[in-house]
Each structure stands twice: as structure tokens, then as C-alpha cells.
Amino acid sequence: MRFIPATAALLIILAGTAGAIDKITYPTRIGAVVFPHKKHQDALGECRGCHEKGPGRIDGFDKVMAHGKGCKGCHEEMKIGPVRCGDCHKGGSTH
Ligand code: HEC
Ligand code: HEC
Ligand code: HEC
């Protein structure tokens, strides 16, 4: 059975390389945040700016990072993308 997780991991890496990660949803208690990942790939062109250690889930990604350079900080810096609470946290719904 050991080769199965490795195969799954490889498929995830290949999917990422192909830019197949479309959207990632963070269900938070003040409303779900939908991160349009593919749109960011297309707008920013490269992975390294966000993925220092290569594509995949980011170690320690949390609220502090999201409100800093992980999401909001970049929007502030580039003067594009949502910076207000309700523009990321939608409708108080977590579905
Ligand atoms: C604007 C920043 C940004 C850019 C640019 C970006 N990513 Fe991501 N990516 C993220 C964030 C944030 C996550 C989710 C991190 C987390 O929650 O742990 C993520 C997650 C991923 C995942 C894991 C998805 C999952 O659900 O397991 C893969 C694979 C990935 N990115 C690949 C890429 C590749 C390949 C590129 C370049 C073509 C890229 N990313 C560009 C920010 C970015
Ligand atoms: C650019 C998008 C963005 C903006 C703007 C933003 N947030 Fe967030 N916030 C997130 C993301 C993404 C997470 C989830 C991080 C994680 O769980 O890894 C989050 C998490 C949270 C959490 C944690 C909720 C939980 O269930 O643990 C709270 C509370 C929160 N944000 C409040 C706020 C408030 C208040 C504002 C406005 C002052 C705000 N956020 C603005 C993206 C944003
Ligand atoms: C390195 C810079 C950078 C980071 C990090 C980043 N963004 Fe963005 N974001 C952008 C840019 C640039 C745009 C404008 C893209 C466009 O209009 O094509 C944008 C646009 C958006 C939009 C609006 C998309 C639309 O359809 O208009 C949302 C929502 C968003 N970002 C959420 C997030 C969340 C959530 C995170 C963190 C998980 C995040 N972003 C991280 C640069 C960034």
C-alpha cells in the first residue's frame, strides 16, 4: 500500500505544475474566504513569490499570515485585490 500515497503526492505536484489548482476555500467563523488560486497564478506569473519552498500547502499558513503578506499585505502593496474584511469573508456563511 505504501506506493499509493506517493503516487497521490506526485499527482498533486503534477496538477499544481499544470496550474490545475483553481480555488481554495477557507471556511472561517466570520464567513468563508474563497481564494481564486488559478487567477493569482495567471496574474502573477510565477509560483516562487508565494511558494518559497515549492508548490503545495504552505507551512504555518494561518490568520496572521493571511492578514499579512500571505494575502492582504500583497493586495495593499500592489493596490489591487480585496483589503476589507467583508470583501474576503463573504456573507458570514461557511458553506
Ligand atoms: C498569490 C500567491 C500564490 C501564487 C502566485 C501561487 N500560489 Fe499556490 N497556493 C497559494 C496559497 C496561499 C495556497 C494555500 C496554502 C495553504 O493553505 O496551506 C496555495 C496552494 C497551492 C497548492 C496546494 C493545493 C492543495 O489544496 O493541496 C499547490 C499544488 C499550489 N499552490 C501550486 C502552485 C503553483 C504550481 C503555482 C505557480 C504556477 C502557484 N501555486 C502559485 C498561493 C499562491
Ligand atoms: C485578503 C483577504 C482577507 C481580508 C481582507 C481579511 N481576511 Fe480574515 N482571513 C483571511 C483568510 C484567508 C483567513 C483564513 C486563514 C487560515 O485559516 O489559514 C482569515 C481568517 C480570519 C479569522 C479567523 C477565523 C477562524 O474561523 O478562525 C478572523 C477572525 C478574521 N480572518 C477576521 C478578519 C477581519 C476582522 C478582517 C478585517 C479587518 C479580515 N479578516 C480581513 C483572509 C482575509
Ligand atoms: C503576491 C501577491 C498576492 C497574494 C499573496 C495574494 N493576492 Fe489576491 N490578488 C493579487 C492580485 C494581483 C489580484 C488581482 C488579480 C486580477 O485581477 O487578475 C488579486 C485579486 C484577488 C481577489 C479578487 C479576484 C477577482 O475575481 O476579482 C481575491 C478574492 C483575492 N485576491 C484573494 C486572495 C486571498 C484569499 C489570498 C491569500 C490566500 C490572496 N489573494 C493572496 C495579489 C495577491
UniProtKB/TrEMBL annotation:
Cofactor mode of binding and number, as noted: Binds 4 heme c groups covalently per monomer.
Keywords: Electron transport, Heme, Iron, Metal-binding, Signal, Transport
Signal sequence, renumbered to the chain: 1-20
InterPro entries reported for this sequence: Cyt_c7-like (IPR029467), Cyt_c_III (IPR002322), Multihaem_cyt_sf (IPR036280)
Residues annotated as binding heme c 2: C85
Record: residues binding heme c 1: C71, C74, H75, C88, H89
Protein name in the entry: Cytochrome c
Species name: Geobacter sulfurreducens (strain ATCC 51573 / DSM 12127 / PCA)
